[in-house]
Design brief:
By secondary structure, the chain is an alpha/beta fold. Helices cover 32% and strands 24% of the residues. α8 links the parallel β12 (205-208) and β13.
Length: 242
């Protein structure tokens, strides 16, 4: 992140606002961002709402995991995308993969296992990455499968995130909102990905980044500048002036 974004976010934290990193990344990949923003007491929504953790100083307590059976979704995907790479985050926070497949969003090295072991595992998050399709072609292929019993979102590339049915960044944030007893009207969310759509709809004020796809902008209450123009800082600086 740029220095302007870092500075404005830290000031929001210091003012006493409840700042929550809500991400498709695993908890291990989200924590460095939490630390960089100076959040030493608060919460994290990771794995697209599948994992909720409380931060107290250096202690991290995972108090909720939304676990599901990925077998039917994996079987359907394998039939249509046999050359894709598959990985899942299990109920212990470990990553298992069908091939050498480690991404920065995992926050951990993946362990290569047989595809059958993936199918028989419980999951918090499933990731599918295709090396031979564009994001658009990949998205159309996935939509044509009619996946049921899960929630999924297609990323910027030929990348698919799958979670338990009804599990999104929004569902994780709503669980936290109930714990913290905030009114929804007092919430602000900023995002740029397709996995942010439910979150932007949920928030009292949902802001899409300037580089977001049209379907993300369409559900937002407002649109800020792109990431290269510090669009997040623009939003946070306006918040600080209130």
């Amino acid at each position: 992140m740029s220095e302007r974004v870092r500075r404005s976010a830290r000031e929001v934290v210091e003012r006493g606002h409840e700042v929550v990193i809500s991400t498709g990344r695993s908890l291990g990949a989200a924590l460095p961002i939490v630390r960089e923003l100076g959040i030493d007491h608060g919460y994290v929504v990771a794995s697209n709402g599948g994992v909720l953790a409380k931060i107290t100083g250096e202690d991290v307590d995972v108090f909720h995991r939304e676990v599901f059976d990925p077998s039917l979704a994996l079987a359907a995907l394998w039939r249509s995308l046999p050359n894709a790479k598959y990985a899942l985050e299990n109920e212990r926070g470990e990553f298992l993969s069908s091939d050498v497949f480690t991404d920065a969003s995992f926050g951990a090295e993946s362990q290569v296992v047989d595809f059958e072991e993936l199918v028989n595992s419980k999951a918090v998050r499933v990731v599918v990455f295709s090396t031979d399709a564009t994001a658009e072609d990949f998205g159309h292929a996935v939509q044509g499968l009619g996946l049921s019993g899960v929630t999924y979102s297609v990323g910027w590339t030929a990348w698919l995130d799958i979670a338990a049915e009804g599990t999104t960044k929004a569902s994780g944030l709503e669980r936290l909102r109930a714990i913290l007893k905030f009114n929804t009207a007092d919430t602000l969310a900023v995002g740029d990905g397709r996995n942010d759509i439910e979150m932007l709809q949920w928030a009292g004020l949902g802001v899409a980044m300037g580089q977001a796809p049209d379907e993300v902008k369409d559900v937002a209450d407002a649109i800020t500048d792109g990431v290269d123009d510090d669009g997040l800082a623009v939003v946070l600086e306006e918040l600080l002036q209130r």
